[in-house]
């Protein structure tokens, strides 16, 4: 019996193993057991992970600066599954990046790489600071470009978002992209909304196919605005959505121009968004603030058959 390393025999494995055992996109250095006369067998893969949450929007993270962590879509979905895996709204890899402190690679809970996640950005900033990969003020590359983040007092992390270049306004709604596309629906009592049923109907409506859209139900309250969000890729309500909170805050001032700071009450906690509007349909200087907290870390064994 001989123990071999997959990186040495990747080309042979592509031809040898069926797609049910390993995805060619998941060829990472991991042990393979070679039994003469029987063939090659994958040994279970272990992943060291960290769990963070921002206002209840929770994520599994992994440090990929020194190792090439490549997981299949099914493996990421399994990690995010709240019954069979760790449980999370998304999965992130922290990678090295020339010209920035690190790169954020974000995947939705369904395992697909996705657009920008605001609370994910704040959580990975807290993660990078805890690892010593970045200082209190940092920059990182995400799918929508370069972001600045600042570690504040307590658990607060602020994230500088990309500018909004277009806002569509209609009867009781706004449509804008804050790193991810968002539909903001104004309602009189957000707690009475069936977020999953109504959010899913808008998310899968013909207008937004094939990619779909995130859907936010927002109520004006004396403290600011109250929000509940249906997130595509999670396909459920989440306790908070950073890009959704940002979209709702910007939409809340309508056609007004000026400098604003909007408190936002999400189901999982309180956040705030500051920004400047020089025209009715644009916003700049956007900063999302709120808690980003470490929850726990551990090791998990990934089934090799997914």
**Class based on secondary structure composition and strand pairing:** alpha+beta
Number of domains: 3
Radius of gyration equals 21 Å
N/C terminus separation: 26 Å
CATH third-level topology of the largest domain:
Diaminopimelate Epimerase, Chain A, domain 1
What's the count of strands?
20
Strand count, sense and barrel status of the largest sheet are: 17 strands, mixed
* Helical residues, percent: 10-25%
What share of the residues does DSSP label as strand, in percent?
A: 35-45%
How many DSSP H or I helices? 5
Q: Give the assembly state of these chains.
A: single chain
Q: Residue-averaged pLDDT, rounded?
A: 89
H/E topology pattern: EHEEEEHEEHEEEEEEHEEEHEEEE
Shape: globular
- CATH superfamily of the largest domain, please? Diaminopimelate Epimerase, Chain A, domain 1
Low-confidence stretches: 1-36
CATH level 1 class label of the largest domain = Alpha Beta
CATH second-level architecture of the largest domain: Roll
